Amino acid sequence: MLELADLKPGEKLYDLGSGDGRILITAVVRFKAKAVGVEISDDLVNSANARIRRLGLDNDAQVIHGNFLDVDLSPADVITLYLATDANEMLRPNLEKYLRNGARVVSHDYAVPSWKPKLVDKDPDIHGHVIYLYQMPPKKK
Predict the structure, then answer these.
(1) Is pLDDT of 124 > 70?
(2) Angle at the Cα of 2 (from 52 to 50), degrees rounded to 5?
(3) Which stretches does DSSP call E strand in the chain?
(4) Are β-strands 34-39 and 61-65 bridged in parallel, bridged antiparallel, or unpaired?
(5) For position 118, what pLDDT does the model report?
(6) pLDDT category of residue 141 using cuts at 50, 70 and 90
(7) Model confidence over 50-74: pLDDT tens digits?
(8) What backbone torsions phi and psi does residue 64 show, to the nearest 5 degrees?
């Protein structure tokens, strides 16, 4: 997902529904990005942040507890999603509101309804999974 998004050093990644934080950690370690996870489970927030601290990455990554529908996404260069289609649809207005021209959204397995992907990757190495890459267009006036 991060390769497909062409994540660059210094860019800010938001992982919505970040779970154990593995995408955040990979973004920081491998891509030298800054990373923010949003997770609703207290246990996952605590364990992911503890792992981030143990790895010495807490200046570059963090998981915040909350509902991703309530988060200001405007600092994001890249958003990663592994959410069901209905959650992507609920999230779509926030993505359109907050994300600037050129920001990328990468969704694992589930499309964002009414958006046309820039690229759809069906990697045989990930056994039938599909990754959708979207790029935000300029805002309509």
Answers:
(1) no
(2) 10
(3) 12-16, 34-39, 61-65, 78-81, 104-108, 119-121, 131-135
(4) parallel
(5) 96
(6) low
(7) 999 999 999 999 999 999 999 999 9
(8) -105, 145
Beta bridge partners of 62: 36
What's this model's pTM, rounded to 2 decimal places?
A: 0.93
Q: Report which of 76, 70, 73, 71 is spatially closest to residue 27, judged by C-alpha positions.
A: 76
Residue 60 half-sphere exposure toward CB, CA atoms < 13 A: 19
Share of the chain above pLDDT 90, in %: 91
CA dihedral for 117, 122, 123, 128, sign (positive or negative): positive
Location of structure tokens 């190495």? 125
Instruction: Tell me the sheet residues that pair with 132.
Output: 107, 120
Task: Classify 17 in phi/psi space as left (phi over 0), alpha (psi -120 to 50) or beta.
Answer: left
